[in-house]
Specification:
With 89 residues, the protein is an alpha/beta fold. It is built from 3 helices and 5 strands; from the N terminus they run ββαββααβ.
Length: 89
């Protein structure tokens, strides 16, 4: 049974691996994932994790970097949404 899953994210500086892996598994299983931030804006990943600046140890290789906007984008039935209703939570 397919479900719609609300995935809360901070407005900025989130770890892309903590989002990309569950998003990929859930969408492959046929679920629709909707991302929500506190302000309703498109979330911004931690740039240090994408560029590898942190101690020279971290950083995505080229392919994941170019796809980093995929979970927050509108591809494959996913997309950002405005602030979740606090009264319905």
């Amino acid at each position: 049974m397919s479900r719609t899953i609300l995935f809360p994210l901070p407005d900025r500086d989130f770890d892309v691996t903590e989002v990309a892996v569950p998003w990929k598994l859930l969408t492959r299983a046929g679920h629709r994932v909707i991302f929500a931030t506190e302000s309703g804006a498109t979330p911004a990943a931690d740039p240090l994790l994408l560029t590898g600046v942190v101690f020279g140890q971290l950083g995505a290789i080229h392919a994941p970097t170019t796809r980093s906007s995929s979970p927050a984008g509108t591809r494959r039935g996913c997309g950002s949404t405005s602030r979740a209703s606090r009264s319905g939570a």
